[in-house]
Amino acid sequence: MLQCPPAPRYTDFWVTIYGFPPSAISTILQHFAQCGTIVDKVFSPQNGNWVHLKYASRLECDKALNYNEKILGNNIMIGVTQCKDKNIIDKENMCENNTQPCKVRPLAQNAYKSAQNDSAVDNNISLPQKSSGLMNKAMDLFFGW
User: Residue 32 pLDDT more than 70?
Assistant: First the structure.
């Protein structure tokens, strides 16, 4: 019997970035946005020097983790680690353990709804039609298309 792998835990996609001055938060966010899609972010209170970022996939999270102990902008050494903040992890578990479905992003909502109905046919798709022009008739006669 073939079993599907377990669904990924969303807590696995959180990273914590620390060690930068509060004035460099935009530089940090811009840099780490290049690692992948940032789905959520939690900033430190009162101008702290850390931020939690949640990525959309394990691969993107791993890309961010590779910047641990690297120097950005020639003068900021940062640390990047897997998020260990219980408040962030508990926030994710509330959504996982809740009987109500989690929020679906608006752009993905239509695709999600249409995927629920297996027998739905989209009649809006225009199918290609064979042209019946003089050139096509000559090509049919000449090449047997």
Answer: yes
> What is the dihedral sign for C-alpha 12, 94, 88, 72?
positive
Q: How far is CA 115 from CA 110, 121, 134, in A?
A: 9, 11, 43
Strand-strand pairing, 76-82 and 14-18: antiparallel
Answer yes or no: are the C-beta atoms of 64 and 80 closer than 8 Å. yes
- Mean per-residue pLDDT, 25-38: 93
Nearest Cα residue to 72 out of 35, 40, 42, 37: 35
What pLDDT does 18 receive?
Answer: 95
Query: CATH assignment of 14-85, given 3.40.920.10, 3.30.70.330, 3.40.109.10, 3.30.70.240?
Result: 3.30.70.330
What is the C-alpha to C-alpha distance for residues 42 and 51, in angstroms, rounded to an integer?
Answer: 6
Indicate the average pLDDT of the chain: 76
Per residue in 72-109, pLDDT (tens digit) is 888 999 999 999 888 886 665 555 444 444 444 444 45
What's 66's DSSP letter?
A: T
